[in-house]
Automatic annotation (TrEMBL):
Keywords: Bacterial flagellum, Bacterial flagellum biogenesis, Bacterial flagellum protein export, Cell membrane, Cell projection, Cilium, Flagellum, Membrane, Protein transport, Transmembrane, Transmembrane helix, Transport. This is Flagellar biosynthetic protein FliP. It comes from Methylobrevis pamukkalensis. It is a multi-pass membrane protein. Plays a role in the flagellum-specific transport system. Pfam families: FliP. The gene is fliP. PANTHER family: FLAGELLAR BIOSYNTHETIC PROTEIN FLIP. Belongs to the FliP/MopC/SpaP family. One of its GO terms (biological process) is bacterial-type flagellum organization. It comes from the Bacteria. Signal peptide: none annotated. It is found in: Cell membrane; Bacterial flagellum basal body. NCBIfam families: fliP, PRK12797.1. The chain crosses the membrane at residues 20-52, 64-83, 165-185, 197-218.
Length: 222
């Protein structure tokens, strides 16, 4: 005798609703890398690491995969409290079925909103409020994400360039010293960058540059 087979879709939930929820979840997962770049510390970190490589004079070392991986792990380290709060506030209730997907998204976005508001510059935020031609929000917490996210990103780029400027200074000095010595020796045909590169590498190693840089980046979000 054939057995009855039934599929439970949840109390009061139709197949169409479940399909819409599944599509929404897949969409969010597909946009996760972009969201990671937009609303976390990743932008500042990866730009600083890229500027460091350029300042030293290296083109492909460390490789892009290594730089991005380091930026991702530093981002995960910095953002762990925010990730945990977002999961507990919005994602876990959606998985348990206690809140709808749209409400869960708003709840999960709240910790990221607080993080961005903590690090966005007021002038950048005001710029996008003016560009949006919408009434000014009563409180910073009322700012729309479409205004807050681009303001946060350009604030992060500004801070990354400020850190990059400080990173560049000692390496520029090394280049200038090497170039002056080569000119004094009459070796003007020899590219100074070729001679200064090993000195910049050993300088970065002696000052424990990776530890200093990683520590400074993490503390900059403290």
């Amino acid at each position: 005798m054939a057995q009855d087979v039934s599929i439970s879709l949840g109390d009061g939930t139709t197949l169409t609703e479940r399909a819409v929820q599944l599509i929404g979840l897949i969409t969010v997962l597909s946009l996760a890398p972009s969201i990671l770049v937009m609303v976390t510390s990743f932008t500042r970190i990866v730009v600083v690491l890229s500027l460091l490589r350029t300042a030293i004079g290296l083109q492909t070392a460390p490789p892009n995969a290594v730089m991005v991986s380091l930026a991702l792990f530093l981002t995960a380290f910095i953002m762990q409290p925010t990730f945990e709060r977002a999961y507990e506030a919005g994602i876990s209730p959606v998985i348990e079925g206690t809140v709808e997907l749209a409400e869960g998204f708003d709840l999960a976005a709240a910790p990221f909103r607080e993080f961005m508001l903590e690090h966005v510059r007021e002038t950048d935020l005001q710029l996008f409020v003016d560009l949006s031609e919408t009434p000014a929000p009563a409180t910073p917490q009322d700012v729309s994400l479409r205004i807050l996210i681009p303001a946060f990103m350009i604030s992060e780029l500004r801070r990354a360039f400020e850190i990059g400027f400080l990173i560049y200074l000692p390496f520029v000095i090394i280049d200038m010293v090497v170039a002056s010595i080569l000119m004094a020796m009459g070796m003007m045909m020899l590219p100074p960058v070729v001679i200064s590169l090993p000195f910049k590498l050993i300088f970065f190693v002696l000052v424990d540059g990776w530890q200093l840089l990683a520590g400074s980046l993490v503390r900059s979000f403290g």
